[in-house]
């Protein structure tokens, strides 16, 4: 079976889902929001599984997937700010960490230092997506708590990247 590029199409589906998810959040359509978040989470898992299973891991996909993840996450978090579910400070903390880690990883890759995703990074993503799901279905208190937990995990994992960055003198 030839599925060349199919994983990237699944990744792009998250981008297509995002504006509809934002509109459903802003218009208090909690069931639709929950279903769309579930589909986005499923697509994030499925694109990786398909790419690996059918040997369709590409440089485009390796760059596209995290970019779409960030667009999805930041866009949805901004919708939650507009709904007054979370503060803009929360979004700042998440965006700042993501941009710094992306920079660390980019510099390290340019120096030939490959740093695979860590357990903490995966735990952060899981907690963050669970928080987004809870917030999208209007379970604001637990969603907010889980989002803060994901931020704490995110900064611990960012510190791990910083230690590698410094140890390997990636800045030179």
TrEMBL record:
Keywords: Lipid biosynthesis, Lipid metabolism, Membrane, Phospholipid biosynthesis, Phospholipid metabolism, Transferase, Transmembrane, Transmembrane helix
A biological process from GO: glycerophospholipid biosynthetic process
Subcellular location(s) per record: Membrane
Entry keyword Lipid metabolism: yes
Reaction it catalyzes: a CDP-1,2-diacyl-sn-glycerol + sn-glycerol 3-phosphate = a 1,2-diacyl-sn-glycero-3-phospho-(1'-sn-glycero-3'-phosphate) + CMP + H(+)
Primary residence: membrane
Listed pathway(s): Phospholipid metabolism; phosphatidylglycerol biosynthesis; phosphatidylglycerol from CDP-diacylglycerol: step 1/2
A GO molecular-function descriptor: CDP-diacylglycerol-glycerol-3-phosphate 3-phosphatidyltransferase activity
NCBIfam families: pgsA (TIGR00560)
Family: Belongs to the CDP-alcohol phosphatidyltransferase class-I family.
Name of the protein in question: CDP-diacylglycerol--glycerol-3-phosphate 3-phosphatidyltransferase
Taxonomic source organism: Persephonella marina (strain DSM 14350 / EX-H1)
Taxonomic classification: Bacteria, Pseudomonadati, Aquificota, Aquificia, Aquificales
Gene behind the chain: pgsA_1
């Amino acid at each position: 079976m030839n599925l060349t590029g199919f994983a990237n199409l699944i990744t792009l589906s998250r981008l297509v889902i995002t504006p509809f998810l934002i509109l459903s959040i802003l218009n208090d359509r909690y069931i639709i929001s929950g279903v769309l978040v579930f589909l986005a989470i499923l697509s994030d898992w499925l694109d990786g599984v398909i790419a690996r299973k059918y040997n369709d891991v590409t440089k485009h996909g390796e760059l596209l997937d995290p970019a779409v993840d960030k667009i999805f996450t930041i866009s949805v978090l901004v919708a939650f700010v507009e709904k007054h579910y979370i503060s803009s400070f929360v979004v700042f903390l998440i965006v700042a960490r993501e941009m710094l880690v992306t920079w660390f990883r980019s510099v390290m890759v340019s120096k030939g230092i490959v740093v695979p995703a860590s357990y903490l990074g995966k735990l952060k993503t899981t907690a963050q997506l669970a928080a987004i799901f809870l917030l999208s279905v209007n379970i604001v208190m637990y969603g907010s708590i889980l989002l803060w937990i994901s931020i704490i995990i995110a900064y611990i994992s960012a510190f791990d990247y910083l230690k590698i960055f410094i140890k390997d003198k990636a800045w030179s």
